[in-house]
Design brief:
By secondary structure, this protein is of the alpha/beta class. The chain has eight helices and five strands; from the N terminus they run H-H-H-E-H-E-H-E-H-E-H-E-H. Helix 4 crosses helix 5 and helix 7 runs parallel beside helix 8.
Length: 231
């Protein structure tokens, strides 16, 4: 009898405090199921690789297609000869009056380009046979691409005849470049176009090397950084 009373007392106490806490049943997966799910996902990723690898790569790309720009800007932040070569080809095809090459400014005089960056740019310009070029000293202030675009914007502002700009840049940087330059120059009523340039790494094969995977990962991080925190 005493045992029954004790049980009733415990049950009554539990019912009064049920709104504070309750007991439930938890099911946990076994290591075999977890291992099986991981294996399935790996097989699925390998089977669909031909689809998701290009999809991720092209997600970073912006190609404006054919255009007739007043100004061609060479994205020279990484000093890649391929963008100079492409700019030279586009200059002959599209007939832009000026090709603008941003060059790192001198540490002693920010209004002048640094000696070494200037000479490297001149070598690439000669090798690519680009005519009507102009060097623009760029003060590398974080975030660098945005401040480079702002300084290009100051140059464009001094040339009222420029109403359209084509930026020649690395393929995986092209979407971010379009975003930034459109943000800066669009406020001035200047149309912005982007031409992606490709080397050995392309949207179809970036995942085949560690360097390619690193490049795509970092470019997505930078794109999100500019979208969320900068612009």
């Amino acid at each position: 009898m005493d045992k029954n009373k004790e049980s009733d007392r415990i049950a009554g106490t539990a019912s009064r405090f049920r709104w504070l806490a309750y007991r439930t049943t938890v099911y946990k997966t076994t290591w075999k199921l977890r291992l099986g799910l991981v294996g399935f996902l790996l097989i699925l990723a390998a089977a669909t690789r031909a689809w998701w690898v290009p999809a991720i790569g092209w997600g970073l790309v912006m190609d404006s297609g054919p255009c007739k720009p007043d100004l061609i800007v060479v994205d020279n932040l990484d000093r890649d000869y391929l963008v100079f070569e492409k700019a030279g080809q586009l200059k002959k095809i599209d007939g832009a009056r000026i090709v603008l090459v941003p060059v790192k400014a001198s540490g002693q005089d920010p209004d002048k380009s640094g000696l070494v960056p200037r000479e490297i740019a001149k070598v690439m310009i000669r090798a690519a046979r680009i005519e009507s070029t102009e060097l623009l000293p760029i003060r590398e202030i974080e975030p660098i691409t945005l401040h480079a675009a702002l300084q290009v914007g100051e140059f464009v502002k001094s040339k009222p005849a420029i109403r359209s700009v084509l930026v020649v840049t690395d393929g995986f940087r092209s979407s971010r470049t379009q975003l930034i330059y459109s943000h800066v120059l669009g406020k001035m009523g200047v149309a912005v176009f982007t031409c992606p340039v490709w080397g050995a790494q392309r949207p179809e094969n970036w995942a085949s090397t560690w360097h390619g995977r690193q490049t795509v990962f970092l470019q997505y991080l930078k794109l999100l950084y500019y979208k969320i925190l900068v612009l």
